[in-house]
Amino acid sequence: MQNSGETPKGGDTLNVKHSQRVYLANNASLGEDNFYGVNLLGGSISYDVDLSASGCSCNAAFYLISMPGRDIDGIPSTGNDADYYCDANNVGGQWCPEFDIMEANTFAWHSTPHKCDPPNSNGHYFNCDRSGSCFQKTIDKNATAYGPNSTYTIDTSKQFSVQISFKLDAHFEVELT
Predict the structure, then answer these.
(1) Distance between CA atoms of 108 and 175, rounded to whole angstroms?
(2) Which distant-in-sequence residues (6+ apart) come within 8 Å of 137 by Cβ?
(3) Which is catalytic among the residues 6, 103, 173, 175?
(4) Coil, strand, or helix at residue 48?
(5) How does DSSP assign 96-158, residue by residue?
(6) Which of 32, 98, 173, 175 is catalytic?
(7) SS3 category, 51
(8) pLDDT tens string 45-77
(9) How far is CA 161 from the centre of its chain?
(10) Average pLDDT of span 103-118
(11) Ordered strands of the 60-65 beta sheet
(12) Is 103 one of the catalytic residues?
């Protein structure tokens, strides 16, 4: 696992500080062919999250991207931060498919896949669906499902559990408990 100075604690917990990225890698070296990839179709990811300190204007994000980004000739591109980053918004200087499992704070939850146009024969993407087509849960005056106190079904002032399942029919399902 490659990250920005954070170490898994207790074998199954990873604490990530504000404004950090964490990469799953095959070994400790960050390189173009070292990113860990997994086919989640038919599988799921489960985790616990504490968003209690993530209020308005904060975006606690957990997402999957298809790294490394590739230039027009298919050569892995180190991108803007020299870490081969790419995403569906071209943040690192290269486009690539992205799945936002969680973009959230205590008031809103957003999960969305971002599709890209087909890549060229070298694996370079020219454009992606920047906004995605999403599942979204936000609070409003009449909603009681998600919010920062005990009157909500999901009390975001406390830790809660998340499971996202990737169905074989290419749909996904998010369950918050």
Answers:
(1) 14
(2) 108, 109, 110, 145, 146, 176
(3) 103
(4) strand
(5) --EEEEEEE-SSEEEEEEE-BPPP-TTS-B--B-SS---EEEE--TT--SEESSTTSSEETTS
(6) 98
(7) coil
(8) 999 999 999 998 889 999 999 899 999 999 999
(9) 16
(10) 92
(11) 60-65, 98-104, 108-114, 135-138
(12) yes
